Automatic annotation (TrEMBL):
UniProt family annotation: Belongs to the TCP11 family.
Composition skew (Basic and acidic residues), residue ranges: 37-52
Region (Disordered): 1-52, 264-286
Biological process annotations from GO: germ cell development; protein kinase A signaling; regulation of sperm capacitation
Gene Ontology cellular component terms for the protein in this record: acrosomal vesicle; sperm flagellum
Organism lineage: Eukaryota, Metazoa, Chordata, Craniata, Vertebrata
Species of origin: Catagonus wagneri
Gene: TCP11
Annotated protein name in UniProt: T-complex 11
Length: 507
């Protein structure tokens, strides 16, 4: 039995120990080496294409160096139905059967058991922190392989007793999330089953230690990466002075958008008009521009960026695909909240006072909204309208309440169908309020922004929290790397202000 035994032992009660991998984007932390730059007299479009490739290659280094804040390495778990999984399981079973035969032999053969205990000792020692010298000495003494070998030669090695000591030590070393798994092992009296379970849990404890180490090193890795990525971008900028042209136009457009008041809501039906801002709100004059406002507006604009537009900011090329996905998520949430707002106005407080009904309506609508990418939005919204009206009618019938009239049903279907139009008042107001929430996330953080959600968004609070956190994580690192460049650009767009650079980099 050589190497890392925990990776070789088969899984036991996998459903108990399986961790949620989340939305991690891991990978080997090995920097990529870009090829040699070639200067030629090719067309501007070809040069622009190569420039994009260079910036992408350099920017991706941040992910290779460990900038994934949600990185949680996990041991690979093979599907039991796969050929590799079946072969692995067969080999493991054969090993444990062999160990059982050795221990039941007369006299017992402890050769395999001693190898297992030796590897368990090494794993336990590897889980210790440098300051745990006393526990290290205790493990060395209790699992002295010379003494255990002598006991085995005399046929007096009590594998079960040694295993119990190992369990007590695991209780001291394991994370709280593993307490239940260790406690379950304490009820096992068969030494082979116990050793097998110990290896399974020790494997999980090793992964816990790896994750702890990764998280402990994250601040240093992040700080190193910020300076590294900025230095590499500066090298490209020295060779290509026009490298920030698109970034400048992006921030200029954001400043222009802030100086332009939003269009008023058109007149619509009562339910839609109720969502429109009051005249007093529309009459408020825009605030003076600040670097924080311009950057926030710029990042929001990226969520709505035309996919075919080649003038994407150079400083955000690495994040373009993720921004596109966040934009699609924002779109679906806007439509979802709009649908729930309209449905609530026709359902009344009785139906929407039921969390079960609202949750079912949300799940049904979200499933239908996934079809936006494969069919015209108007057709998808027609299906949404039909399903939502059906759910409302069915729920009213189940509760023995008065059904929707024909006129109300037609009005409901019409308003839900109108949500497919970007200029629809309900949709535009919900869109503005989600944008306001995301701006607050950039300034105040997600949790504080959730405390005061704009009207109409409470029913999608969990979805907004997920979107907001992803958006904040993406923009925060980008600002840390490219803050100095944004500062210089914003100085040309905003009247001089004290502490400008500090404000940009602390966003």
């Amino acid at each position: 039995l050589g190497g890392d035994s925990t990776s070789k032992m088969p899984d036991v009660e996998e459903k108990v120990y399986q961790k949620d991998p989340g939305n991690a984007e891991g990978g080997p932390c090995k920097p990529e080496t870009s090829g040699r730059t070639q200067e030629d007299k090719s067309s501007p479009k070809d040069q622009s294409s190569r420039l994009v490739d260079k910036v992408n290659a350099v920017s991706k280094l941040s992910e290779k160096i460990g900038m994934n804040l949600d990185c949680h390495p996990e041991e690979k778990v093979l599907p039991p139905s796969s050929l590799e999984g079946r072969v692995k399981e067969t080999m493991h079973n054969a090993f444990w059967d062999h160990l059982k035969d050795q221990l039941l032999a007369t006299p017992p053969d402890f050769s395999c058991a001693l190898e297992l205990l030796k590897e368990i000792k090494e794993i336990l020692l590897s889980l210790l922190l440098p300051r745990q010298n006393r526990l290290r000495s205790e493990i060395e003494e209790a699992l002295d392989m010379n003494l255990l070998g002598q006991a085995a030669e005399q046929g007096a090695l009590n594998v079960l007793c040694v295993s119990k000591y190992i369990l007590n030590t695991m209780t001291l070393l394991c994370a709280p999330v593993r307490d239940e798994a260790v406690q379950k092992l304490e009820t096992i009296t068969d030494p082979v089953r116990l050793l097998r379970g110990i290896f399974q849990v020790l494997g999980l404890m090793k992964m816990d230690m790896v994750n702890y180490t990764v998280q402990s090193l994250q601040p240093q890795l992040q700080e190193h990466n910020i300076h590294y990525e900025r230095a590499k971008f500066q090298e490209l900028l020295a060779k290509q002075p026009s490298l920030l042209d698109h970034t400048t136009r992006w921030l200029t457009q954001a400043a222009t958008d802030l100086a332009t008041p939003p269009p008023p809501c058109p007149d619509t039906a009562d339910a839609a008009s109720a969502a429109c801002p009051s005249p007093g709100e529309a009459a408020v004059s825009p605030e003076p521009l600040s670097p924080r406002m311009v950057l926030s507006q710029g990042f929001l604009n990226l969520l709505l960026w035309d996919g075919d537009d080649e003038e994407f900011p150079e400083t955000l090329l690495r994040d373009r695909a993720r921004l596109r996905e966040l934009g699609a998520q924002l779109h679906r949430l806007t439509v979802l909240a709009s649908v729930l707002l309209v449905a609530g106005s026709f359902s009344g407080s009785v139906l929407f006072g039921s969390p079960q009904f609202v949750d079912k309506l949300k799940r049904t609508t979200k499933a239908l909204l996934e079809e936006f990418s494969s069919r015209p939005e108007a057709a998808a919204m027609l299906a949404v309208g039909e399903r939502v009206s059906q759910e409302i009618r069915q729920r009213l019938g189940d509760m023995r309440l008065a059904p929707l009239s024909s006129d109300s049903t037609v009005a409901l279907m019409g308003q839900l169908q109108n949500i497919s139009r970007k200029e629809d008042c309900v949709r535009s107001v919900i869109d503005q309020r989600i944008h306001l929430f995301l701006k607050c996330c950039l300034v105040l953080g997600v949790q504080r922004s959730l405390l005061d959600l704009p009207g109409g968004l409470a029913l999608i609070e969990a979805e907004l929290a997920e979107l907001g956190q992803k958006f904040v994580n993406l923009t925060h690192h980008n600002q840390q790397v490219f803050g100095p460049y944004y500062t210089e650009i914003l100085k040309t767009l905003i009247p001089p202000a004290q502490g400008l650079e500090m404000e940009v980099e602390s966003l």
